[in-house]
Amino acid sequence: MKRAQIIALVLAGGAGTRLAQLTKSIAKPAVPFAGSYRLIDFTLSNCCNSQLDTIGVLMPRNPFSLPDTIGQSTFQAQIYPLHPVSWEQGGYSGTANAVYANIPFIEQFNPDYVLITSGDHVYKMDYRNLLLFHRERNADATIAVSPVPWSQTSRFGIVSAAADGAIKEFNEKPLHAGSNLASMGVYVFSWPQLKQQLEADAVDGNSCHDFGRNIIPAMMSQAKRLFVYSFSGYWRDVGTVEALYSAQMDLLQNPELLSLQDPQWPIYSLETAPTNKSSVYSNVNRSIIFAGAHISSQATIKDAIVMTGARIGPGSFVERAIIGPYAVLETGSIVRGGEPGYPPVAVIGENLVVSANMVHSY
User: Fold this and answer.
1) Which top EC class is given (predicted)?
2) Residues near 105 by Cβ (< 8 Å), separated by ≥ 6?
3) Consecutive 10-residue runs of the chain (362 residues): their mean pLDDT?
4) HEC states along 264-303?
5) Rounded to an integer, what is the distance from CA 348 to the centroid of its chain?
6) Topology, domain 279-360
7) Which CATH superfamily, name and number, covers 6-257?
């Protein structure tokens, strides 16, 4: 194998239980987004646009299709799907274990640095700037961070840092946070240091084998050189139904937040789009309609996301909801969220059939 200064590893696992019925039959990174994308398209496009030419994708139990290469005509990125040796033995037991299990893959390239990122976040980042920041500080690890609302700090790893960016404190999903700087799940590690940490963690019977819970705290306790890289662009962890819905509404209402048509930073769609276009014969307001969806006459669609191949029957009413791929709403169905007595966002899962003349809010 050709030596690579840096390789990227994309964590594409996770049960996806917080996305309810949308991940019953597909992996979380393969969840459709914004009309013609999948969640993982953003991370892979970031790698491609950052000219990282070696990308390993640590695959989930529900696999999804990946191309051999992505990129522009002047650049290609080689993508390697990395499956656990055996799902019968439980597969990967944590994010750190997933990387540890693939040390032989990493060693083929003899890298100086390893970028680790998630396959279910929506953002644009030039990882070259992150690597430069890491190298200039002679860091052992650098964590990309972004401020989040204080009410959401319990969902993230929260970081406190000194004026020079050195990490003073790291707490994974704290009940009471002293900062609102959230780890984006984007790390650069110097490979010799990371390998040492992974090997020590692998034999620790008390470890969860997780970066946020174990690897980062262990490095903190050893006084390693850990720094934060502050990211100021649009970033959303879309691991919940509400976050997935809100991120798509963000881009619908304020497309300048994250341009999907920027020729300088294209988002490559790795999804195979249906050959037929969507067909809309009714009233649609503030909604995203994917290719191949069909909305019949006298239906009302408001503040909703209707995914690929979904069919909305005549006279149906859909408001503040996500209708999954190839779901069917029979004539007169009502699916709504956001009002008292209803969930914040209603979800109809992939291939589900909603009976006529019934109110559905799950």
Assistant:
1) transferase
2) 56, 80, 82
3) 89 73 84 91 95 92 73 71 70 89 96 96 98 98 97 94 95 93 97 98 95 96 97 93 95 92 87 68 92 94 96 95 95 91 90 75 50
4) CCCCCCCCCCCCCCCEECCEEECCEECCCCEECCCCEEEC
5) 21
6) UDP N-Acetylglucosamine Acyltransferase; domain 1 (2.160.10)
7) Spore Coat Polysaccharide Biosynthesis Protein SpsA; Chain A (3.90.550.10)
